[in-house]
Amino acid sequence: MSGAKFNHDAILETMRVGIRKGMNGSLVRGARLLRGQLSHAGMGTLYRVAQGKAKGRNLRARGYHRASYAGQSPAALTGTLRASWSVETVGNRPDGFANIFESGRDVILRFGSNLKYAQMLEYGTRRMKPRPYVRKVLPRLSVFAKKEIVTALEREFARTP
Fold first, then answer.
1. Contact between 75 and 68 (Cβ < 8 Å)
2. CA 6 remoteness from chain centre
3. Which helix H or strand E contains 48, and what residues bound it?
4. Which of 16, 22, 60, 151 is deepest in the core (most CB within 10 A)?
């Protein structure tokens, strides 16, 4: 009786490395999509926000800000919201991949901002309608994440002798 011998630990480690690389690629793409979503100028009302120069090269230099309409992504003014976003994986260890296969735990991609008004913009308040920007990125990110993880796994298994 002939049979193939498999190194179970090597297969698991190759899978872990492939998933880690795929998740990292997904995180990078997610951050790019989110920052791109927050980089657009508004299409709404024009407000005077500061004393500006009459010959300023853009609206901000002239002391104006064009807000976003309800339902649009927030208009960029200072870039603080865009810069505050971070993405990470969640798990037992710092790399987030400790017990994926052993205990069946899910690996979660977590997006977050440390600004108080980030959630208010996304979901709105009783005085302001929502300006969703994360919800617009998530459907595209889920498609990209699946492709990134599959591609990374294929690369890792192709490299393994």
1. yes
2. 37
3. strand 46-48
4. 22
